[in-house]
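Predict the 3D structure for this chain.
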Amino acid sequence: MAENAAGGSIDEEEAKLSGALSSEIGRVVVGQEDMVQGLLIGLLCGGHVLLEGMPGLAKTLTVQSLAQAIDTGFSRIQFTPDMLPADVIGTQIYSPRDHSFSVKRGPIFSNLVLADEINRAPAKVQAALLEAMQERQVTIGGETFVLQDPFLVLATQNPIEQEGTYPLPEAQIDRFMLKLRVGYPSAEEERRILDRMASGQPLPEVKAVATGADVLAARKTVDRLFVDEKARNYVVDLVQATRDPAAAGVAEIEGLIEHGASPRAGIALMKASKAHAFLHGRSYVTPHDIQSMAHDVLRHRVVVSYEAEAEGRTAEDLIQKIMDTLLVP
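Done. Predicted structure below.
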């Protein structure tokens, strides 16, 4: 048992949960440790995750492997421009036999939902998905259905393909707790991928090593982790600095941020930092945990200005500048 400064502890069995899930995913997926860690943090916090990366980087395979490692519901939705909201949430079916309507539930009624190529869906579908993500409920024909916990949307999108896509509205992007950038593997990892995938042998079977109840129990432990007042203030300072850099002492980037992060970002950063500490076996949050999660939590919430784009500055650059400037507790 690991003791924290407030007298709480991390159960050893719960602490083994993340290691067991990572190990099972690693049976199929080569490398991509950062993506796997981000998915586990989203799972431990109950926060939706957006995966952005080029095709062929095992985004879908990783999410599917995670779902197989947990004995819970899983559904995959392949988004296309001709989709309707009913394709996601379900619809009412009329029965001519007894002249009544019954509800046919859509794929959103699951625990882990893979929204593949989410930016290909039109606005109406995005609006339907938004209610499920934020309210954890779905309305069909005037009747409201509460989604079963744990409920998590894991979405993927291609960062460069624009034709036939619908950019996600800011309101929905803000609902994603984390936005993970998925990069290319190293030369060594790519060689291992070639050896594994070109052998003609089927991929190893991923076994279920956890249940939905295990995930919910681990979430309660994460919520109880100790966070010092100075660390809480540091989270607030980071988020505030994205809105008013000059007041935070980062006048150099004044005018380069069009819109800063919302208060929801601070909540997400606090929760993600707790989960990061949990994954590393600590029962308390350090500034390193906060800095480790800042980019994943803030990159999709910080909108750069035209001036920043003209200078070739990205949201990641500005977030890093803020972290380099602010005093670390």
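The chain has two domains: 2-219, 225-325.
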